[in-house]
């Protein structure tokens, strides 16, 4: 059964503006209040509850796409997800292209796009299938209940991204720990800086070694192409490493939990429903209220006059549940025709690794559900620990039995 959004009073910040709703009361649904906002005021002035930053909250599918595709909105921003890190304009490190605008963003993006095509990702299919099978073998040998996150959802994408980049999997504990801090909304700036610095130092050593002996993995290929400095390679590798395993790991954990509570949809995924990955991405929208932008000039969006220097925030979860996007958007339907969802972003910053993400989800979920047809959660839904303070939504653990 589809879960219904729950209406709740809107708290106000110090400025008197209502706060951006951040908390999900159901792990599968957007924060309460976003649906009502989308219907009444698809672009509205709000305040971030964490740091008091005033911004424009955008919740309709059409306006979110317009905002994310408009070059007058800058991506060179940082902060906004912690009381100690107010939203501000930043000068990103060379190579950190996710926080860059044209033309610098386009230069890096063009260098990398050819390495993430559907064809290139499909070459990884046999290796991904092998990684998944090995993790399932290891799960089967463990006493039950088994934590699906620790034993499957996290190791699979971590192994895959290590394979793609050419990074030893033995380094996983270091980059997984750093990633947890980087996306933790309760971490202090000092903790985040330390995590970033430690990971950067580790990657610098790896890149130096690969300059001596480049291999056929992505970092080695980029070194041979010769267009990037070591500093740029460190930042690019860090971005791909963190984004490449955090997102897919949380989709596997939360996606499995969702399917366990929708057995009819679980059966379709087990049988190989071709659109399942995209529907799960749309429905869960685990990367939601982190899409900050800054107006580089005066502009108009949805009839609202926005001044240069003002901030905007696109709610991908609200946009993906917009009735204008698809029929009955609050219903999970893995046979739904492909939609123009924005779970992977939109415009020039749309997720570079989207083809890999879909492939991993397809292979891993089908294999998991076929190997363990009796799979079920070992605890009630309300006892599953949700990542409430993380910029990427998901679950910390998921005990399962079969």
Automatic annotation (TrEMBL):
Any idea what this protein is called?
A: Cytochrome P450
The record's listing under Pfam families reads:
p450
Q: Name one GO molecular function term.
A: heme binding
Q: Which family does it belong to?
A: Belongs to the cytochrome P450 family.
Query: In its keyword annotation, does this UniProt entry include Heme?
Result: yes
Key words of the record = Heme, Iron, Metal-binding, Monooxygenase, Oxidoreductase
Region annotated Disordered, chain positions: 1-24
- Cite the CDD domains for this sequence: CYP105-like (cd11030)
Q: Which Gene3D superfamilies match?
A: Cytochrome P450 (1.10.630.10)
């Amino acid at each position: 059964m589809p879960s219904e959004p729950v209406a709740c009073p809107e708290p106000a910040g110090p400025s008197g503006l209502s706060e951006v709703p951040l908390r999900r009361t159901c792990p599968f649904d957007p924060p309460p209040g976003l649906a009502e906002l989308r219907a009444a005021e698809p672009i509205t002035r709000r305040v971030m509850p964490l740091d008091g930053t005033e911004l424009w909250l955008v919740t309709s599918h059409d306006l979110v796409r317009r905002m994310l595709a408009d070059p007058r909105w800058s991506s060179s921003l940082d902060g906004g997800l912690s009381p100690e890190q107010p939203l501000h304009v930043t000068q990103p490190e060379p190579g950190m292209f996710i926080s860059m605008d044209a033309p610098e963003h386009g230069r890096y993006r063009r260098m990398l796009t050819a390495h993430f095509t559907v064809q290139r990702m499909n070459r990884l299919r046999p290796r991904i299938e092998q990684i998944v099978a090995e993790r399932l073998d290891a799960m089967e040998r463990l006493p039950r209940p088994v934590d699906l996150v620790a034993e499957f959802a996290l190791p699979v994408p971590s192994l895959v991204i290590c394979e793609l980049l050419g990074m030893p999997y033995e380094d996983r504990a270091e980059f997984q720990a750093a990633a947890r801090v980087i996306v933790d909304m309760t971490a202090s700036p000092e903790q985040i800086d330390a995590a970033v610095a430690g990971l950067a130092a580790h990657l610098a050593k790896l890149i130096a070694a690969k300059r001596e002996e480049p291999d056929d993995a992505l970092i080695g290929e980029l070194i041979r192409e010769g267009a990037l400095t070591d500093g740029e390679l460190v930042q690019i590798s860090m971005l791909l490493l963190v984004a490449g395993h955090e997102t897919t790991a949380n989709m596997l954990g939360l996606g499995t939990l969702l399917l366990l509570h929708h057995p009819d949809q679980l059966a379709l995924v087990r049988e190989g429903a071709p659109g399942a990955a995209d529907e799960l991405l749309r429905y869960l929208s685990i990367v939601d209220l982190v899409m900050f932008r800054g107006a580089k000039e005066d502009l108009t969006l949805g009839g609202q006059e926005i001044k240069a220097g003002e901030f905007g925030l696109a709610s991908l979860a609200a946009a993906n549940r917009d009735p204008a996007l698809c029929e009955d958007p609050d219903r999970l339907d893995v046979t739904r025709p492909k939609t123009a969802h924005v779970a992977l972003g939109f415009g020039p910053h749309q997720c570079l690794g989207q083809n890999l993400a879909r492939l991993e989800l397809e292979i891993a979920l089908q294999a998991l559900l076929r190997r363990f047809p009796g799979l079920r959660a070992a605890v009630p839904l309300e006892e599953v620990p949700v990542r409430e303070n993380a910029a990427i939504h998901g679950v910390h653990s998921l005990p399962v039995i079969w």
